[in-house]
Design brief:
about 50% helix, alpha+beta, four-stranded antiparallel β-sheet, homodimer, 4 strands, about 130 residues, Alpha-Beta Plaits, 4 helices
């Protein structure tokens, strides 16, 4: 009798177990994937030098202090110096979420709030990432 | 008399020497600067997989065989998979000019000619290029 009701309970819980298992599997796969993004920023031309200094400081601090921030390349268009591109690689999505909670990121955001005219964030997927061994 | 005409000749040639010196100085400074570029490519959706394979092969060959090709990161937009971005760093402008003369680059160009719907090339200037030591 006891065995029968246990079996009944388990059979009811089975779909929950299966769903939990696949959810965990998916989350763990997501967490292992690097998170890569392009940020396109247009800056107020009058504040360009201050903006570049703030961006540079933010990037240097992130790479030095955050284990999950792997790569940050910031550049401006030669023809349109107020057009900035930042190419960012994080170890995973969680590393990015942790990055935007840091004091240095918040400082950068506050400092540049009135300098940024537009910001576009584009999630990207790597096709080939190759570089010379350093 | 001989000394006098030599001095006169030299004084006439002096501006030429000075100009040549500054021109050489400038050229040598230009050649030492890394050449960094973003290529934005829109690909025919029906040929996307073939295009990505050709691009990956071209990048891997360039990094492996060309000393002046330092970094090539190719990616597609998650939301618009036909929109490709390639972020390229060459040791200098000459390394880029040599790259586009290679057999593998010409092969890539020929192979992808009918796959590419648009191509935009943007010269950029680094603000901060930081990455974790590998």
């Amino acid at each position: 009798m006891y065995f029968h009701s246990m079996a009944k309970l388990l059979s009811k819980l089975l779909p929950v177990f299966v769903c939990t298992f696949f959810f965990m599997l998916q989350s763990s796969a997501q967490n292992k994937e690097p998170y890569v993004r392009i940020a396109k920023i247009v800056v107020d031309s009058l504040q360009l030098e201050n903006y570049k200094a703030a961006l540079k400081e933010g990037i240097e601090t992130a790479i030095r202090t955050e284990p999950g921030v792997l790569r940050m390349y910031a550049m401006y268009d030669k023809e349109n110096p107020t057009h900035i591109t930042v190419f960012e690689t994080y170890a995973n999505k969680e590393a990015y979420q942790s990055h935007i909670q840091t004091a240095h990121f918040k400082k950068y955001k506050t400092r540049t709030l009135n300098m940024v005219k537009s910001l576009e964030l584009i999630d990207v997927v790597p096709i080939a990432f190759e570089s010379k061994q350093q």
